[in-house]
Amino acid sequence: MEEIDELMNFGLRRRRRGSGGKKGRRKGSRKKLNPVVSAKIAQATVHYASKEYNEAIPLLHDVVRLAPNIADGYHLLGLVYDSLHDRKKAFNFHMIAAFFTRKDASLWKKLVAWSIEMGDVALVKHCLSKAIIADPDDVGLKFDGALLYFNAGEFLKAAELYEQILRLTPENVQARITAAKMYRKCGRTEKGIQILEDYVNADNQKSNLSVIELLINLYMSNNAHNKALQQIDKWHDALDSEKLPFHLEAKATICRAHLGDMGHAEVFLHHVPLDATKETIDAVAEVADSFFEMGKYDYALKFYFKVEFLTGNPDGDLYKKIAQCYMSLKERSKAVPFFYKALNKMEENVEIRLTLASILLEEGKEDETITLLSPSDSNEKNSQPKSWWLDGQVKIQLAKVYHSKGMLESFVNTIYSSVRDTLIIESINQKLRPMKKLSKHVLIERAKLLAEQEPDSVFHGFRPLASSAELLKASRAKKLLEKRAALKEQKRAAAIASGLEWHTDESDEEPQRREKQEPPLPGFLRKQENHQLLVDLCKALASLHRYWEALEIINKTLKVAHDDIFSSQRKEELRSLGAEIAYGTTDPKHGFDYVKYIVQQHPYSNAAWNCYYKVVSRLEDRYSKHNKFVRYMRNLRNDCIPPIIISGHQFNSISQHQAATADYLEAYKLQPDNPLINLCVGTSLINLALGFRLKNKHHCILQGFAFLYKYLHLCDSSQEALYNIARAYHHVGLVTLAASYYEKVLAMHVKDEPVPRLPYEKPPSDQQDPKSNYCDLRREAAYNLHLIYKKSGAVDLARQILKDYCTV
């Protein structure tokens, strides 16, 4: 019967005016239907009422063909297909009928219900808007539209619909409250306040407490505490009782505090009932939080302690707030017990633990801090991926405490693995470049917003319920997908036309792209205070003789750290440390790059070249990188002497004395008065003269001694220079002259001096071998002289020399 009534009433709009005298211009009469069409509609209606649907459908098809602009045939077809449980066809025919009778609100409402069942949000939005236009007085439709916009995040549109509802039903409190909340959500608090004020200030309205509370909250959130207090007083005056509700009294206390009246806070605190309910406790906590935000920490403490008393067993957040109040009042020692209470309630809270650790460190309680930041044995066994002791900041803080106490091994064990993993992950993340084009997967996800309707659906192109930016992205994605598909089809056609076998190009089906990983210490390198921790870690590893691990940290840090992250001074410090570690490792090849960098930065520094040569001297004779670098430096800086001398040393070490002499003489041209160069030239010429291929050996020996005597003169006949002259005479077999110079060495006494060391090398301790500071050459001279005496047959004299100078 309902369907028959719907059919009989179809096309008849509800009359808004009374049935009395008509106003306005006379409407034209409705065009009469073709008698054939009318007869077919009547016959189809009879079949429909008799449930003879198969007989009604052909008749209605004829109606649509004969009168395609008449809604009756489409509507009746929709009813028939609905009775046959074919909802899609029924919906399509009802939609056509609705377009011909746009003012038929009942039909649009039916379509709204069906589109909701179909789950098509865009279609729901379209039908709902048409239904609202057809029946603007239907409040239920506006509620449905507002809810639709709210679920889609369109709070402003939802608020506007709620405001339209208020124009129809001003007494609707719920719509008014919801409209104000929607305006607050979209940042238009003033508009929400105006809507509530209109209701409160109306003389014919009795104010609702919910409206009053929301208006007070909006005033307070808008920093209009004076207006909020006025509203509370106005409500109080309208009450029959003399006492305000407790939660409103709490808000009045907050407003008075913002206006500078703190005296009412004490009064309110005394009025707090002992048998408090949850609402009462929440009100007191709200006052305490407001005082905390205002900076009234002494008052906040009083209210927090009242909440603690009323609750009996408060949560950890309350103890945390009490501790923060004491911290703000500069009473840090009083904050400690409350931080501990908060930790008992919230053991996984890292922020509380770190704050407490900083307080303990300020008080010098390092052992207690270590206990606080270290997990117990039971906790460590039951470790979870997000346990508090695995947090990066906790590890950094604990490592700093260990380092300050000099516990290097504990310091390294705490932080090394996290730092290493962080550097590795950061290095991998830097290699992940942003994609030049969006992947097909991303495009498909975006284009889903514009997904086509079912193929058998007549209606398409309804605007989805989304923002303009999202719709623009979806449209671009759809066009790009179509463009890629067309290009792919062109390639396929070209391949087939060329007689080639076509294989689908799977390159557009991008493999799953690796996402950036989260390191154990997020943002570690970007914090300046952590850079010193990195240096301390490398030094600690070197002190523990874990050279490879230290070099690994240095290598990865220099690889990852860019100039905007790591200062050049820090990088220089790390490279210098790498050079130091390289000398202590069994294979100094890993530190060669560091000493090479130091030399490149300071090419004329003897200390830098000494550091370089200390490392190079432990390498194999023909280390290609070293030879290439020395040649490069010589070509780059012709006036730089150290690489020339090092090259000569390298030739001497492999008995290529002629090449060594050439290098030494090149250095001599640059600095003829350098004692070291004269010594090197002299000894190299003597070594060259002792070879087998040289013809003028005596002339070469005389040249060598000429350079050695110049060296002696430049050194002011020092003990070392005399010893080198004696050693040269001894080497060529002139033992008489050698003996005379050895005796001159024995006649001189030189004070012991420390062995020269590089800046980073530690001075020797008292427990070390005293020979490390030995500089007097009399013992060496005496031994060589005893060899000469012994060979010449003066055994007693040789024995006496040993007894005088070489006996301990």
UniProtKB/TrEMBL annotation:
It holds the Pfam family TPR_7. SUPFAM superfamilies: TPR-like. PROSITE patterns: TPR (PS50005). Residues 502-518 have a biased composition (Basic and acidic residues). InterPro entries: Tfc4/TFIIIC-102/Sfc4, TPR-like_helical_dom_sf, TPR_rpt. GO terms for biological process: transcription by RNA polymerase III. Keywords: TPR repeat. Gene3D superfamilies: Tetratricopeptide repeat domain. One of its GO terms (cellular component) is transcription factor TFIIIC complex. Residues 498-523 are annotated as: Disordered. TPR repeats lie at residues 139-172, 316-349. This is General transcription factor 3C polypeptide 3. The lineage of its organism: Eukaryota, Viridiplantae, Streptophyta, Embryophyta, Tracheophyta.
